[in-house]
Automatic annotation (TrEMBL):
InterPro entries: Papain-like_cys_pep_sf
Domain of life: Bacteria
Region (Disordered): 1-20
Protein name: Peptidase C1A papain
Organism: Candidatus Protofrankia californiensis
Length: 232
């Protein structure tokens, strides 16, 4: 099954780079969904700086490294790879480059800045021994449930109004489609019915590099060919 390429709109203020690959085999690895009443608020601490992908469409690699650098229920966020490389922008580009080799998007980086998929970077994390497996959250309740155990990778369409959050960090999925983007969901706020994400457009974006989506807006984006990878 080939990926669905999400072209980037010209003139966008930030680079994107995520494409859609929904493998039917992923249905056999569905993450469980808890009752809404069982959900609790939690923010998973990030141990590395917010990354900045700059002019490269490497959001999938950046999100994967952001996940590695963030706590989960099993371990504290990592600062470096077993090889000794710091989990920084250079390593994120390396993960992205490897993902372009294993995905089903035409071309490879370098030299072609092809973009990649959440599924591909999950395969890279597994191949490099960071994780033993990965699952997939299908739908809003499953995504919120997965956040009870740690951060997750969210791949979504990116709409024009999402480039600039409000001053308090709200993202509103509105406007024309600008492309696809991969980010890290790392906080659930049950009382306010929000999820927070960390982006890869530097700490100058949003609220120290972060923004939030209402549960309704997250559900909407998941319905627009969104996907959630739950590494473990």
């Amino acid at each position: 099954m080939t990926a669905t390429i999400l072209p980037e709109a010209p003139g966008s203020p930030h680079r994107l780079g995520r494409h859609v690959h929904h493998d039917p085999q992923s249905l056999a690895y569905a993450a469980p969904a808890l009752p809404y009443a069982a959900l609790k608020s939690i923010r998973w601490t990030r141990r590395i700086d917010v990354l900045d992908q700059g002019d490269l469409g490497s959001c999938t690699g950046n999100a994967a490294v952001g996940w590695l650098g963030t706590d989960n229920v099993h371990r504290q966020g990592l600062a470096s790879a077993p090889s000794g490389h710091l989990l920084d922008e250079t390593y994120a580009v390396d993960v992205y480059a490897y993902a372009t080799d294993v995905d089903n998007v035409p071309g490879e980086y370098p030299p072609e800045d092809t973009g990649s998929t959440g599924l591909a970077v999950a395969k890279v994390l597994k191949h490099r021994g960071f994780i033993q497996r990965y699952r997939h959250a299908f739908g809003l309740r499953s995504t919120l449930s997965a956040l009870q155990s740690g951060p997750v990778l969210l791949g979504t369409v990116w709409l024009e109004e999402m480039f600039q959050p409000t001053t308090d960090g709200e993202l509103t999925p509105d406007g024309a489609q600008a492309g696809g983007h991969e980010i890290v969901l790392d906080e659930i706020d049950v009382e306010r019915r929000r999820v927070w994400l960390t982006n890869s457009w530097s700490a100058e974006w949003g609220v120290d590099g972060r923004a939030w989506l209402s549960w309704d807006h997250l559900g909407y984006l998941l319905g627009q060919q969104g996907d959630v990878v739950v590494p473990g």
